[in-house]
Write a structure and sequence with these properties.
Distance between the termini: 48 Å
Shape: globular
Strand content: under 5%
Oligomer: single chain
Structural class: mainly alpha
Strand order of the largest sheet: 1-2
Radius of gyration: 20 Å
Number of domains: 1
């Protein structure tokens, strides 16, 4: 019989891949907004590239959280209680970001629009940073006791390794978003976006390499997977290196594919290194949460699988259709405001 615990572990990973891929360039566009937009019209163009999609992209996170809650309630409870303050800060940033998209055009005063533009920047940069910190903590381990209770505090989440992971995700998402703009905006903005992506490409690669070196000493991923960290991890590093070369050569489409692969393969490598665990206990390995001791009942997993088989293809089809409808470049002649 199919092991539904493994199936839902894979499905949660797939949902996070979709979220980080889509929301990754979404965050990146928000981060580069104040720097690439030289006037109000250009900043409006940049916002309009993600205007039809940003709220739909965030649905992937809600779906991933819902899947965790239903399939692995112990994981959900421990993670959300342990990351409570960090998630609260992230939520405030996301609320400010969403309000900024809606309020920016309500007043033409330069100070008003500048405030909301920087709110979009902050509301994009903070989650991009915190997601890296969160993922690094899952791999490094957290103070979880025998009752699956997080016994640390906010500062337990902060270390050189986790903060470096946050910087890495911030840079990768910024690069991903800048490359996205090269394909979706007028040539003058696209050229500046290409230059920005090229300028940060190799520093980003350097931060990621340093993070991998620290991961060797801070986590057990290498011990679990062997000296070779696996095809996914090697592929992620290779894709990022390829993206750095491709964007400097002006091959924008392939560069975007490469950053997308970097994000997807990084999530795969993370879940591969965790399996069958979902959260690592730094107090005692036997107290780690796994896909078995943190899961719902077999009956619940069966019902969820049936529901997912029906509705996931519908959601994927709708989102693919929306991207197809808004596939054209956004130009100065585009008067739509989102």
């Amino acid at each position: 019989m199919i092991d539904l615990n493994i199936v839902w572990f894979v499905l949660v990973a797939v949902l996070f891949i979709g979220f980080f891929f889509l929301e990754g360039f979404d965050y990146g566009v928000g981060i580069v907004l104040p720097f690439l937009g030289k006037d109000d019209t250009e900043r409006r163009i940049i916002i309009n590239t993600i205007g039809p999609h940003w709220d739909g992209n965030e649905v992937w996170l809600i779906t991933a959280g819902g899947a965790m809650f239903a399939a692995f309630p112990e994981w959900y409870a421990t993670m959300f209680s342990g990351f409570y303050l960090a998630l609260f800060v992230m939520l405030i940033a996301l609320i400010l970001r969403g309000v900024a998209f809606e309020f920016r055009s309500k007043n033409e005063a330069p100070q008003w629009r500048a405030f909301w533009d920087w709110s979009i920047f902050g509301g994009s940069a903070v989650p991009a940073l915190l997601w890296g910190v969160a993922i690094a903590n899952l791999v490094r381990g957290l103070p979880i006791d025998e009752s699956f209770t997080f016994t640390g505090n906010f500062f337990s989440l902060l270390s050189p390794f986790t903060l470096l992971a946050g910087v890495a995700t911030l840079l990768v998402f910024t690069m991903h978003g800048a490359i996205f703009l090269t394909m979706k905006t007028e040539e003058d903005i696209a050229i500046r976006a290409q230059k920005l992506a090229g300028d940060i490409a190799f520093p980003t690669l350097g931060v990621v390499i340093l993070l991998v070196v620290l991961a060797y000493f801070q986590t057990d991923v290498f011990q679990r997977l062997g000296v070779n960290p696996g095809v996914a991890a090697v592929g992620a590093a290779g894709a990022l290196f390829a993206a750095a070369l491709l964007i400097r050569r002006g091959q924008r489409g392939w560069a975007f594919v490469s950053t997308a692969l970097t994000i997807a393969l990084t999530v795969v490598a993370t879940f591969q290194g965790l399996f069958p665990r979902v959260m690592v206990s730094s107090l005692n390995p036997d107290w780690s949460l796994t896909i078995y001791n943190a899961s719902s009942s077999p009956y619940t997993l069966r019902i969820m699988t049936i529901v997912a088989l029906i509705f996931v293809p519908i959601v994927l089809g709708y989102q693919a259709w929306s991207y197809w409808v808004f596939r054209q470049r956004v130009t100065r002649d585009t008067h739509l405001e989102y």
